[in-house]
Write a structure and sequence with these properties.
213 residues; nucleic acid binding; seven-stranded mixed beta sheet; Mlase_EEF1AKMT1/ZCCHC4; alpha/beta
């Protein structure tokens, strides 16, 4: 009887070593991504997922919105970011500033941020953990994932539940009337930019005297 093993192609020890090295490098790269992402909250560590309608802000825009949120929240303030991870990541880079922040996000990759991450699906706007008390955030920054009134209306329920009053909404220019209707926010002069150009004109809306005008 022939030895069954003869039919199985054997990799040479050289090829095997090269393959192992390749896998090791890949693992290290992945590992580096998570550790860097964890330490520096760098936007590059988690790539945009267009299937989830994710579009990151440019660095300048994310920083500008993060600084605005810190000012609006005040000393010791609490900030909630709904579907706005690039602003959250900029907030985490503001070392030594006195505020706390939560990220409500559908994309579970952001769970690397630990307890500050809250899984959020706008279809269930009030399906929130018990420790997220009503009106417990000084400002809520939200960027609803879709340009539809339904998405805005449902996200607005979450925003109104969480905020003590201040709202910073980022959405398309076409949503101006609905934003006023559901959240009482007005368009700012500041024009947010994305790291990749979007087809729809994008704007910021607030319901308080902000530094974005």
């Amino acid at each position: 009887k022939m030895d069954d093993d003869d039919d199985i192609p054997q990799l040479s020890s050289h090829t095997l070593a090269a393959l192992q090295e390749f896998y090791l490098e890949q693992q290290q790269r992945e590992g580096m991504k998570t550790s860097q992402g964890f330490n520096q909250y760098s936007i590059g560590s988690i790539e945009e997922d267009w299937q989830l309608s994710q579009f990151w802000y440019s660095d300048e825009t994310a920083l500008c919105l993060a600084k605005e949120a810190v000012l609006a929240a005040g000393k010791g303030g609490r900030i909630a970011c709904i579907s706005a991870p690039s602003v959250y990541q900029k907030l985490k880079e503001q070392d030594g500033e006195d505020f706390s922040v939560c990220i409500l996000e559908y994309d579970r990759r952001f769970s690397v941020y630990g307890e500050e991450f809250i899984f959020y699906d706008y279809n269930h706007p009030l399906d929130l953990p018990e420790n997220l008390l009503p009106h417990s955030f000084d400002i809520v920054i939200a960027d609803p994932p879709y340009l539809s009134e339904e998405c805005l209306q449902k996200t607005a329920e979450t925003i109104k539940y969480l905020t003590k009053g201040k709202v910073l909404l980022c959405t398309g220019a076409v949503m101006e009337e609905q934003a006023a209707k559901h959240l009482g926010v007005k368009m700012c002069k500041f024009i947010p930019k994305h790291s990749r150009n979007l087809a729809n004109e994008f704007r910021c809306y607030v319901n308080y005297a902000s530094g974005l005008d």
